[in-house]
Specification:
The protein has about 325 residues and is of the alpha/beta class. It has helices at about 45-55, 75-80, 95-105, 110-125, 140-150, 170-185, 200-205, 220-230, 245-255, 275-290, 305-315, and strands at about 5-15, 20-30, 35-40, 60-65, 70, 80-85, 160-165, 190-195, 205-210, 215-220, 235-240, 260, 265-270, 295-300. Helix 3 crosses helix 4, helix 5 (about 140-150) runs parallel beside helix 6 (about 170-185) and helix 9 (about 245-255) runs antiparallel to helix 10. The radius of gyration is 24 Å and the shape is elongated. The protein binds adenosine-5'-diphosphate and magnesium ion.
Length: about 325
Amino acid sequence: MTEPRFAVVAEGLRKRYGGTEALAGLDLRVPAGTVHGLLGPNGAGKTTAVRILTTLARPDAGTARVAGHDVVREAVEVRRRIGLVGQHAAVDEVLGGRQNLVMFGRLHHLGARRARLRADELLERFRLTDAAAKPAGEYSGGMRRRLDLAASMILAPPVLFLDEPTTGLDPRSRGEVWDAIRDLVDGGTTVLLTTQYLEEADRLASGVSVIDQGRVIAEGTPDALKARLGGDRVEVVVDDPGALAAAAEIVGRVATGEVDVDAEALRVGAPVAGRAAALTEAVRALDEAGVAVADIGLRRPTLDEVFLSLTEKKEVAL
Ligand SMILES: Nc1ncnc2c1ncn2[C@@H]1O[C@H](COP(=O)(O)OP(=O)(O)O)[C@@H](O)[C@H]1O
Ligand SMILES: [Mg+2]
């Protein structure tokens, strides 16, 4: 059998909990062998989508296929081909990392010898060999998440779901988990990960679906998404209110979108492409025009600004 081109295909998924519409017609396509990010704020419907795609919940309407099988009609086939790391994992705190993995292997019907071999392979792959005997309860946050990942990979599933894999981790642990996820994808696994962090999607995913209130409000590569949203911004603060107009005119020359002027803060800002080049050009032009600059810099939009901008666009479109 040939592998399907898309590891995940969802069409019009809907799910209601009482008065809350958790999913309001979610569409999703994840090409096999890629990392896809489901990016959205708290309550956007990310976990609900993952639960439906992993057969833990049934959609009220719509269809989804994972690894070529329908999540409702062929749930058993789907389960055989997926791994899931949820927000709370089922690792035994008292057992060592290796014992945990051997236990998961046995639960998945591996023989004792194969379970031990697989555990050692996975400990090595997720750089946990040195901590193999240590109780999982004594692991750092990053080690713990890597153990969760290893446990979900016992049967080497072709499609892996990660629900907010780095929420609550410090930056260093987050980096370790990112490395582990990259290794998985190099090995051919398709990963669907949910995240509240724009940076995480940017670092890991080749495709991103931004979701809000149970539906996709934007999608594309992280770069395309950032470019569409205006990407980086140049911001200039001038010394003298009289210089604001000149600064706005100069910033406008390098801008890819609307120039905002904040007269009270003496600040001019605008989205730009090509970070360093835009900044250099703005500095030179301001200097040539004799505009006294108190501060100038590049700033990345925050996730809040991204959502705000998308939500505003959505309202305009309606
Ligand atoms: N089992 C449930 N019972 C009632 N409401 C739920 C349940 N699961 C999710 N919801 C609601 O559905 C919406 C989407 O939740 P969720 O999928 O968990 O979002 P996310 O994972 O993006 O934070 C939220 O408003 C949440 O409160
Ligand atoms: Mg969630």
